[in-house]
Amino acid sequence: MDGDDxxxxxxxxxxxxxxxxGTMTLREAKPILAAILTAEGDEPVDAMQITQDIFDSYxxxxxxxxxxxxxxxxxxxxxVTKKRVYAIVNTTSxxxxxxxxLHSAEEIAFVKRVLDAMFEKYNSPRLEAMFLxxxxxxxxxxxxxxxxxxPAPAEDMDEDTPQSQQQLRGLKNSxxxxxxxxxxxxxxxxxxxxxxxxxxxxxxxxxxxxxIETYNDPxxxxxxxxxxxxxxxxxxIVTVGQRCAERDCNVRLHDICEDAFWRTRREKKCxxxxxPWDGKHYVGERAVTETEAYRRSKGHRGRGxxxxxxxxxxxxxxxxxxxxxxxxxxxxx
Length: 333
Ligand SMILES: [Zn+2]
Ligand SMILES: [Zn+2]
Description:
Component of the Smc5-Smc6 complex. It is found in: Nucleus. Residues 231-273 form the Non-structural maintenance of chromosomes element 1 RING C4HC3-type domain. There is one protein chain. This protein is mainly alpha-helical. It has helices spanning 9-21, 26-40, 52-67, 95-102, 105-121, 134-139, 161-167, 173-185, 201-206, 208-215, 255-263, 286-289, 292-300, 310-316, and strands spanning 23-24, 71-77, 84-90, 189-191, 197-199, 241-243, 252-253, 282-283. The chain has 14 helices and eight strands. A three-stranded antiparallel sheet has the order 1-3-2. It has a three-stranded antiparallel sheet with strand order 7-6-8. A two-stranded antiparallel sheet has the order 4-5. A hairpin with an 8-residue loop joins strand 6 and strand 7. The model is unreliable at 302-306 and 321-333 (pLDDT under 50). Residues 244, 246, 249, 251, 270, 272-273, 275 line the site of one zinc ion (ZN).
C-alpha cells in the first residue's frame, strides 16, 4: 500500500486532484487517497486508514514530478486552526502574474487595492489589523482618482500596467464581491463569518516574497518597524497573533506557536526588547475587537455609519487600547 516505489497512475490521479484544488490538507487528502488505493488494490481502503505517512509519500512523489516543471509543494500551518495546508507553488513566476492569467486588469487592480488596504492602510504601528471588514472592502471597489500620484510599486503589477492604469475605473460592488468570491474559491483569501477578508495560508505561502518586497522597506534600519513581520517561533508571516507591547518592536508570535515558544524560556519577555509579554497586544481582528473604541462602538451599533471609521479612529486615537505608550513619537529615543 505504499505507492512510493515508482510513479504510477495512483500518483498521477493524486497530483491531478491536488492541482485541481491548488491546496490540500490531510483531511481533504484522505478520501482521495482512499479511493486511489481502493482502485489499485484488492480490498477497499477506508479514508480512516490514510495516515500522514501515506499522504507524505504521495506528496513527495508529486513534488518530484513537479520539480522539472518549476513547481514545488510547500506547506504552512493555518495561523488559527493549526491545520497544515499544502499548496502547489510556481517557483519561477510571480503569483500576481498567475492571478493575472485568470482575471482582467480591472480585477487585478482591485485585488491590489485590497492588499494595499490590508497591508498599508490598516497596518500601522498603532493598529496591525491586516484584514478588511465589509465596509473597508467596499471602499476598495473604486479606482482612486487618476490624479492621485501614488507611485505604486509598479514593477509588481505586470508590464501592461502603465497604459491600462489610465482607463481603470474600478469595479461595481457586485463585481467586486464576485471577484472576491472567486479569489476565496481559488484559495487566496478567507472570508470570516462576519464578512471580514484576510489572506489565506496559501496566499501567505505564495505571496511571501512579494509581500515583503512590496510592503517592507529594504532600507530600514535593523529592528525598525516593518509592515510584514514574522513569528519569532516558526518564522512565518504573522497576520493573526500577538505582538510585543512595545509599539516599535517587530517581535510577533502566533497564538498557535506561543505555548511551545514560552515553554523553552525562563521569562515571558520579548526576546528582543525585553518588554514583559502580556499576550494582550494583538495582530489581526482582535487588534480591533479588543479595543475600547470597538466596545464603545458596539454600544452604538444600530446606526450603520457608526462602525465605518472604526479602524481609522483606533489608528488616530492616542488613548485607545494599547494606550499606555506615548503618542506618535517618530523621534527615536
Ligand atoms: Zn508561528
Ligand atoms: Zn519587543
